[in-house]
Each structure stands twice: as C-alpha cells, then as structure tokens.
C-alpha cells in the first residue's frame, strides 16, 4: 500500500516535532522601520517638518523677571545715580538736640527728708488696694471654722449619745437572707388536675353550627304560577307605544361645537 505523503527526491516531508517560525504568518519587516509622522520615534534619516504645540501659556513664577521698559524712569536718575541738584521738602524742621542740664540748688527739698534721716511714727494711708496684690490669694480669718461643740461631731468635748431616724437597713438585720434561697411563696401552686383525675370542664362560648351552604333558597310564595305563559295559551296583548319609522334619524341633543 503506497504512502499518502509523496517523496521529494530522497526526502519525504513530515510534520515537525515542535513549532517553527514558518508555521506562523507575520506582516513582515514593514513595522520595524521608524515612522515618518509625529514627534516621537521619527525616522532620523528623513526630513522632519516644524512642530507647533497648542499648549497654554504658563505664568512665570520667578521673581527675578523685570517688567521691561513700560515704566517711566525719573529725569533726575542717571547711570551714576541721582544728580546733585538740591531738593527741598515740606517737612517740619527737626528739633535741635539740647545739652544735659544739671539741677540747681532750688530743685532740692531738704525739709522733706526728715522721714529718711530721723525716726517717725507709723503712718497709714487710705488709698485703695493696688492691683498687684490681687494675685496673693491668702486665706483670711473668716476662712477658718472652729470645731463644733454641740452634736455628735465634736473634737475637744465629749458628745452625748444621738439617735437617728433612718430606715432599717437590710444588711446586718435579723431578716437578712445570707444564702439567697427562695421562700415558700416563690413557688406556684400545682394544678391538682395534673396529678389527680381531671373533672369535666364546660365552656361559655357560643353554639357552633356545622358548616353548610349559606345560599338563600326561594320559598313557595316566591313563585307566581298564574303568570306562566309558556305551557298554556296567552291572550293577545297590545302596547300603547308609538311606532317609529326605521328611516327617521335620532334626535341629537349634545352637539359638539
């Protein structure tokens, strides 16, 4: 039986053992070349046109920039500084400095030096208290209290027995429950019907009816056999209505305008 794969000379084609580059299709080397448009990755061997940006103007934050020639330079300013022309101001004349004047004999008062040289009696003033003394908050005589003499809280004397009218305390009394155990009243009485024979019980509720159909049925007086005309003959009857023609249009009262 001949093989399905043809021979090419002395070599027979077969499937590769692993993936090779020839099995995958690629666009070729056209994408490896640098582009001719844009700014980034432009081909350096080709001509590049000038590029202008549309960005906004940023404010200069440097304080060293000068305002330029828009300010008027005064006429008395030269490249060497101010010119030597005398200028007069409208200020007042400054006061001339005075020399130190020593006090004369009439500036002293020796009659007032008696308190400093000789002994004098104490003198008290009636002036108000200065504000500097307000920071010294020392207690006065009225800040202290003498120990009481009457009552149970005496210090220097013996106190008589006193009796209080307070309520009886639960702690330490004769009826204090130290074990915290429940008493006889803490238990509920057991119903005798639980452990003895239970007698019959009767309720006071209303009478219960068996469920049934609640539809109202007609009675004998509801029917009128004298008005039956289906099973027997009926005398002719005439109405007193008007005969209307089939070709008369009906009367339309409400007409929409």
From TrEMBL:
It comes from the Eukaryota. One of its GO terms (cellular component) is cytoskeleton. Residues 78-149, 202-225 are annotated as: Disordered. This is Ciliary microtubule associated protein 1B.
């Amino acid at each position: 039986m001949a093989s399905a794969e043809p021979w090419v000379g002395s070599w027979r084609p077969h499937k590769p053992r692993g993936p090779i580059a020839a099995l995958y299709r690629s666009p070729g080397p056209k994408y490896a070349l640098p582009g001719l448009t844009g700014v980034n990755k432009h081909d350096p061997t080709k001509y590049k046109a000038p590029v202008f940006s549309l960005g906004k103007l940023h404010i200069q934050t440097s304080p060293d920039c000068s305002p330029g020639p828009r300010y008027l330079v005064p006429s008395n300013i030269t490249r060497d500084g101010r010119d030597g022309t005398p200028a007069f101001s409208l200020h007042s004349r400054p006061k001339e400095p005075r020399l130190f004047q020593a006090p004369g004999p009439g500036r002293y008062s020796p009659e007032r030096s008696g308190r400093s040289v000789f002994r004098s009696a104490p003198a008290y003033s009636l002036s108000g208290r200065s504000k500097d003394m307000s920071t010294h908050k020392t207690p006065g005589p009225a800040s202290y209290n003498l120990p009481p003499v009457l009552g149970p809280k005496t210090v220097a004397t013996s106190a008589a027995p006193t009796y209080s009218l307070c309520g009886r305390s639960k702690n330490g009394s004769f009826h204090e429950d130290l074990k915290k155990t429940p008493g006889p009243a803490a238990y509920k009485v057991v119903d005798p019907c639980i452990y003895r024979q239970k007698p019959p019980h009767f309720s006071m509720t209303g009478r219960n009816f068996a469920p049934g159909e609640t539809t109202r049925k007609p009675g004998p007086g509801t029917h009128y056999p004298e008005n039956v005309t289906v099973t027997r003959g009926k005398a002719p009857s005439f109405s007193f209505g008007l005969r209307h023609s089939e070709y008369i249009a009906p009367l339309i009262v409400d007409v929409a305008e």
